[in-house]
Automatic annotation (TrEMBL):
Source organism (scientific name): Actinoplanes awajinensis subsp. mycoplanecinus
Domain AAA+ ATPase: 72-189
UniProt region (Disordered), positions on chain: 460-583
Family to which this protein belongs: Belongs to the AAA ATPase family. RarA/MGS1/WRNIP1 subfamily.
A single MF term (Gene Ontology): single-stranded DNA helicase activity
Protein's recorded name: Recombinase RarA
Amino acid sequence: MDTDGLFSLAQPGFGPAAPSGPAGVETAGFGAAAADAPLPVRMRPASLDELVGQQHLLAPGAPLRQLVTGSSPMSVILWGPPGTGKTTIAHLVAHATDRKFVAMSALTAGVKDVRAVIETARRARRSGGPPTVLFIDEVHRFSKTQQDSLLAAVEDRTVTLLAATTENPYFSVISPLLSRCVLLTLQALQEEDVRGLIRRAVADHRGLGGAVSLSPEAETHLVRLAAGDVRKALTALEAAAGSATAQGAKVIDLATAERAVDVAAVRYDRDGDAHYDVTSAFIKSMRGSDPDAALHYLARMLVAGEDPRFIARRIVIFSSEDVGMADPQALLVATAAAQAVQLIGMPEAQLNLAQAVVHMATAPKSNSVTTAIGAAIADVRAGRGGAVPSPLRDAHYSGSRGLGHGLGYRYPHDDPRGVVRQQYVPDDLVGTDYYRPSEHGAERAVGERVPRLRRIVRGLGARPGESRPVAASASGANRAAGGAAASDASQSSADLEQTGTTGSGPQGSGPVEPAASGEAGTPAGEPGRVVETADEGVPDTAADHPVTVTGSGTAAAGPDAEDDVMRSERSDKSGVAAGKEQP
């Protein structure tokens, strides 16, 4: 078998290749690289000390170090992206001890091959021969049956399994095999690690041997192009060196590197001005509703190797900072894209990021959430905000009632509207408006609802010029306590929106007024009368605004202020009996 020139049949220093075993299996260890082997193969570390990166796995006594030195015959699964050293570790294991090393690729080997290796290893073990290390590359490509064939041999250590995969083993490797192995996760190499390996390859006799030098700009380009894959970086370096040599040049400059790999260098520095400039342009393009420009800057960041998690975080922030309540779904789209980046990874996750960017750029915009929390934080830092009102304080523990906690609290769900008159803010913030809805997108409906809610909660009258629709039905009237006709509490905010309003008020109508005390109800089916109000900011009374409620129920009397007090008393009494004070 010849697996892309990576597995050699000859042991270093042992002459010709050893005989091969079953199809798809090499019974000898990885040999020394030939002079014409690819640069990444020639530059593989010859010892554990030359291994770059993966410091979290190289501590004294760590599983990887034990595996390479042969001090512990544990089976291991190596999981990591391409070019992080999985095959290199296999080479180190093959050369480190006198164990018999067998390599196979899941691309070409089958169950028959696996069983043949296991049987050979079992016979060698019985005859006192060396232990067998079985290396399986791309183990995730093995079927369930093929993986099942390994279980018994791994369990009794007939073979020590060393498997490599680029796929998440929790999804691609069967649980019984995974439980019998130590899982080692390899990380993509950092830029400085890749840079160090490139410089080593330029100078080392196994690599370019100093035949050419590399300009700083070209070196940075190759590092960025690699994106943590050292094999990719060394392959690009070899191509650039060949191009420079063909031109008779002794220095690989940026232009030569770009021509060799056919990829333009992206002017982008994660720690410099370019990083902040491109990120700023990216955000401002989405804010400016230009999806094409936003996608351009997204592409520049992705091609330059920017961390996709950083991009996802900026999109999530943007969804609340600049879209907000104008499109509440934007936050869900952004967080879903961020989760996709974590679960899927690059390059596929670039599709999820692009979808989120297009959504943000084309969504209606509102910064009302940003300005609202900013104003609230400014007030808190300025010392505004007194004690929490007593009705809102925690009333779940013994003795809290004696302190007045929860007394007077009005339970909104007891009111048919789901909203009651009640002070929620501290005394020195009464009447303060932090949230100011815009007229964009979905926030337009919120902007129509918020003033109505504030008037109910704060006990304010209707605004000048607003008319009050009278459309209480029999079912609405029957929701009032004692079977009497419903007061303004008989209509929810949804009911008010459905009935519509007339008049010049921009925010819609206020609550429905009850009939004055002693008035008879309007017969069922008779159109309701609309009476305009005149006083702004004054609690409504029956004397100020007489309105007749239509319906089949009996008419009830009572102004808003008195009705509120009565409902408050009922809520307090029922709350004491039923324990409805909320913590």
